[in-house]
Amino acid sequence: MSGNPRIILLSGPIGSGKSRLAAGLVGRHGARLLRTRDLIRAARPGVPEDRRALQRAGAALDRTDGGEWVKTALARLLDQMSGEPDPPTLVVVDAVRIEGQVAAVRSAFGTLVHHIHLTAGESALADRYASREAAGDEGVAFEAARRQRTEKGVEKLAALADVVIETDRSNEDAVLTRATALLGLYPRSVTPLVDVLVGGQYGSEGKGNIVGHIAPEYDLLVRVGGPNAGHKVFGDPVQVYYHLPSGSRRAPHAKLLLGAGAVLRIPKLLKELGEHGIEASRLSIDPQAMIIEDEDIAREGELAKGISSTQQGVGSASANKIMGRAGMNIRLARDVPELRPYLREAQEVLEDAYLRGYRVMLEGTQGTTLSMHHGPYPFVTSRDTTASGCLADAGISPMRVRRVIMVCRTYPIRVGGPSGPMEGELSYEELAARSGIPIDELRTTETTTTTKRQRRIAEFDWVQLRRSALLNGPTDIALTFADYLGIGNRGAYRVDQLNQTTLRFIEEMERVSGVPVSMVSTNFGWRNVIDRRTW
């Protein structure tokens, strides 16, 4: 066949872990598995499936040509695979048994062949053999299996292998990691594949609308934070996301991930999964994500009086995750039976995405000026909302970042009540007079998604813009609510259709931040994002 796949030869005694490594290579890297019995039956059709019959047939073939038959049988099976619509790029042979088999395959396929030998102490091998449930093992004791001539000589193959792994000194994950490294499947350099999207103000910047616009470009959508912030994606119907990435329906092909720093309210999450039709095969939840209990919500009642908390229990649950190290009775995602089908470690999901070259979008929640560490304390949220904070919560290295998109609105808002300072606060009457938008429409729009409170609204804060740019290091700014600079902007689908006030505003944003305004949202229809990106 032309375009041969890479071939992994496994060798080692019975119970050394070959089957587990083979399964890991199939599951993690999509390898195609060829067992010894597959090769024997390709060479001698009709051989029974039991171990003794297969061993006798294999030994007879080895006596005939010293192992050359493996090369011929493998070539025949690879030729069959080459005619498939999606032929494999990686094939695992489990296992080779004598030196002649290894030599024959290497002579035929050269540098495409990688040989891994697994071994372990005799007691570990015996224990594993006793606990395994391999077909054909019935009635064959470990000592008898080990006395078989080919089995007795299998450790000689260690001298020929590219790597020898003692599986009683490395756990299953470590064995797979070492095999992956041998195959060169871990890239030697870090390819930036992650785009981070954060709010540049106090939240409610219209992040969901921007995510909805760009989500179809990505293969994996990641979200952190908790249900104290609802993201809207406008369409028919309007979609609201509290836990899930906002592009979940706009990018139906993309996988979804909630990182270890996420905080989850189980009834709300399960309802959201049902509303958006999200299956367990598509969504991964890190086992260490924190759970919000009823007590957490009750505990936050007093916060609403002092800082206009959304009272969703996110801060209390986050505090419990810290204090729980001292023995408090807390629950993580791994402790919730309903979430078991979704549990996958974020690092495994992300590494798989990197290996496959997937585009990844990390969606932050709330806004930079609400950061626990960098906002006007105590009028802040319970986490760091900057790009770096979101990366930490998701478990993504800064080296993986390609772009940082900071979303800012023309008139920033804060939730109603004692939510903290805001420069140049405006009345809705004044905003209606400036924009031409009816005041009733403004009041309806400026109602919070989660708590249904009326928002406070203010003049654009240029100092805030500069500070948020310093904190996030954005490569791009997405400007939203351009219609607040004139209702006529709602009919703009190109930059030259925006009014002069908006064009001057964009020019000054770029001058103050040092960052291009590459997207402009003029309304909340699916076509109302003017896209000026050059990437």
From TrEMBL:
Cofactor: Mg(2+)
Binding residues for substrate: T449, T450, T451, K452, R453, Q454, R455
Pathway entry: Purine metabolism; AMP biosynthesis via de novo pathway; AMP from IMP: step 1/2
Binding residue positions for GTP: G230, H231, K232, R455, F481, A482, D483
Subcellular localization: Cytoplasm
Binding site for Mg(2+): G230
Major localisation: cytoplasm
Cofactor annotation comment: Binds 1 Mg(2+) ion per subunit.
EC number(s) on file: 6.3.4.4
Enzyme class, spelled out: ligase
Keywords: Cytoplasm, GTP-binding, Ligase, Magnesium, Metal-binding, Nucleotide-binding, Purine biosynthesis
Molecular function as annotated in GO: adenylosuccinate synthase activity
Catalytic activity: IMP + L-aspartate + GTP = N(6)-(1,2-dicarboxyethyl)-AMP + GDP + phosphate + 2 H(+)
Alphabetized InterPro entries for the sequence: Adenylosuccinate_synth_dom1, Adenylosuccinate_synth_dom3, Adenylosuccinate_synthetase, P-loop_NTPase
Pfam families xref list: AAA_33 (PF13671), Adenylsucc_synt (PF00709)
UniProt: IMP binding residues: N228, A229, G230, H231, T310, Q366, T381, R453
Function: Plays an important role in the de novo pathway of purine nucleotide biosynthesis. Catalyzes the first committed step in the biosynthesis of AMP from IMP.
PANTHER family to which the protein is assigned, alphabetical: ADENYLOSUCCINATE SYNTHETASE
Assembly and interaction partners: Homodimer.
Family classification: Belongs to the adenylosuccinate synthetase family.
Name listed for the protein in its UniProt record: Adenylosuccinate synthetase
